[in-house]
Give the backbone structure.
Amino acid sequence: MPFTLATWNINSVRLREPLVLKLLAEQGPDVLCLQECKSPVDLIPTEGFAELGYHHMVARGQKGYNGVAILSRLPIEEVSSQEFGGLDHARHIAGRLENGVTIHNFYVPAGGDKPNREINEKFGQKLDYLTDMRDWFQRETPEKAILVGDLNIAPRQDDVWDHKKMLKVVSHTPVEVELLAEVQEAGNWVDITRQDIPEGLLYSWWSYRAKDWDVADKGRRLDHVWATSDISTAAHSSRVLRDVRGWEKPSDHAPVFASFDL
């Protein structure tokens, strides 16, 4: 069963419902994973999505912040929702398609501004969250699974606009990159985006602070599509829809796509 999947930190699904509808209408992914929905589940505007054929959703929500949802044209059943780092945040949801593929949708904490847990509690929470992710995948090794989401880490040198300048900036510090690598190794995950696009600068996030984000192009690849090694060779056609960052009243993230022949 071939299908196309997209992941997108929408930064408020109710505020940016028109952008979600536009993406679904123009690109038509079979599955769309959203992060930072900032909405209780019962207030996610599902009617418009259903009109476009997305009749299925599994989600976890919170009022005003966090929140993850998987919208699907294909039948999907909820199989898991994990809480890591002792945060009690809506940051993970997993659903299983009829072909047996499990899709994990994650929203890893951003980690604040200072890469030091002694003076920045949020950075410590991020490290603890990733540690719990790693330990979970070590205990329950995933198979026939896809992991997507805003992982809030740009791991490679060419995943940021300037590697040396970013080494002390949260999202690209060595401690975060190393811990994310441990998460990846624990689940035997393959970075599908970089499997398809192995070389070159590649970003999925551009700060709102930039006067002209496109010209400045100081981006980071914070949004990821991974797959377990048993299905990684079935993946192809990865791409980042950079133009979406330039839509009216956009999220600061762009959607990341991949297709699977399973």
About this structure: The chain has one domain: 2-261. Residues 14 and 44 are 6 Å apart (CA to CA). The mean pLDDT is 97. The chain is about 25% helix and 25% strand.
